[in-house]
Records
---
Amino acid sequence: MKKHHLNTLISAEDVQNRIAELAKEINHDYHYNHSKDLVVVGLLRGSFMFMADLVRQLDLPVEVDFLTASSYGTGTESSRDVKILKDLDGDICGKDVLIVEDIIDTGFTLSKVSEILKLREPRSVKICTLLDKPSRREVEVDVEWVGFTIPDEFVVGYGIDYAQHYRNLDYIAKVIIEE
Ligand SMILES: O=P(O)(O)OC[C@H]1O[C@H](OP(=O)(O)OP(=O)(O)O)[C@H](O)[C@@H]1O
Ligand SMILES: Nc1nc2[nH]cnc2c(=O)[nH]1
């Protein structure tokens, strides 16, 4: 890890207030669409904290499942290959799937994961991300719910790491590298 310090980007209070708003919209959407079997899928490891706070505010029956995806650089960004390292434990055929993600950057992870899950014939697949960096996007991803749109800064906290540190912070911070 390079010498660095953190600057708060989104406070813990703002994170929680936004999650309450997202949960309200998500509850409304799945009630409106008469959802009977909702599976909330968290992408590990980054989404664990967001997932825990979000599902507590959902007011319809939900299953919770997790998936670990990993991307391997093959020289250029555009040929990045995303693999499933740990698959879901349960079946999603005929169910509504809500993918919960911490951050979307290039979009490779979510476009590949949603493509793979759609092959399993779920009733629907929707995406909720806490953070979105649209300026970094390389592949298009349909995202239903975005917590915060952020500039192209390296962020940590609330599940998101720098060399596996800072996932436990209850707020989002920018990493400032000290030269
Ligand atoms: O839009 P993309 O460019 O594909 O990047 C976004 C992905 O990168 C991060 O995961 P990371 O590989 O750091 O794993 P982690 O969740 O275990 O921290 C993040 O959690 C997303 O899954
Ligand atoms: N830790 C971390 N991982 C990322 N992956 C994509 N963007 C980011 C970021 O800002 N921080």
Note: The first strand starts at residue 4 and ends at 10.
---
Amino acid sequence: MLLKLTAVSKRFGAVVAADAVDLHVAKGEALGIIGANGAGKSSLFNLVTGVMRPDSGSIEFEGRDVTRVAVRERCHAGIGRSFQIPRPFESLTVFENLMVAAEFGRLGRTGDAVAVCGGVLEATGLSAKANIVAGRLTLLDRKRLELARAMATQPNVLLLDEIAGGLTEAECHELVALIRSLHASGITIVWIEHIVHALLSVVSRLVVLEFGKKIADGEPHAVMNEPAVRRSYLGLEEVAS
Ligand SMILES: Nc1ncnc2c1ncn2[C@@H]1O[C@H](COP(=O)(O)OP(=O)(O)OP(=O)(O)O)[C@@H](O)[C@H]1O
């Protein structure tokens, strides 16, 4: 198992952001996570990346207990993440942004970082924009850069936090194609997304959170049809038969 959460809990006063969450992600998998606003999706990523420490429970990555390991060390171990709102260094070029990410990641300030960033530019369709400053990119290219920055840290698992938000349908289609190609190249993906049709075109397993609790986990279409999911996420009441 690449990533394994066991009974992970996190509270903020009366708010339960994670409620004894068990979650397994296998190498090469593409897993989707959905849940209403405030269900605890971003908190789960914060717990996995080390931004937050759980109150209880454990997190293993590639068989190693990383529950108390610092953010940068988890990044070096291969946990990469993109953020809901892309925040690149606006005045640096696309390539420079990737170099900063590569240096934060496991490559450090080495010659290999240049080669890796060149490969990431190509894989994310940004080669022609390498020398443009990030602040001048379109929203779709900012999303591409957000993915590329995560890829430049050379992750074994890529955590995507609502990366499709704000795009037009056509742009969303392009981003989905890019995520599919990254997954096809062998990277494990865990993707939180409100745009369910985009998510379902990539993932082969779906987890649903409600008030910090995992309420469903399985084949995406079967999960979407579970009564508890329809009630919680889609706000649909079952019609009495
Ligand atoms: N640092 C924090 N301090 C206090 N409460 C927090 C903190 N982080 C998250 N929370 C609370 O924990 C709950 C889960 O938040 P979280 O951001 O994980 O939800 P989410 O499912 O990602 O929501 P959204 O879809 O709106 O991004 C919310 O009630 C939120 O207000």
Note: The domain at 1-77+158-241 is CATH 3.40.50.300 (Rossmann fold).
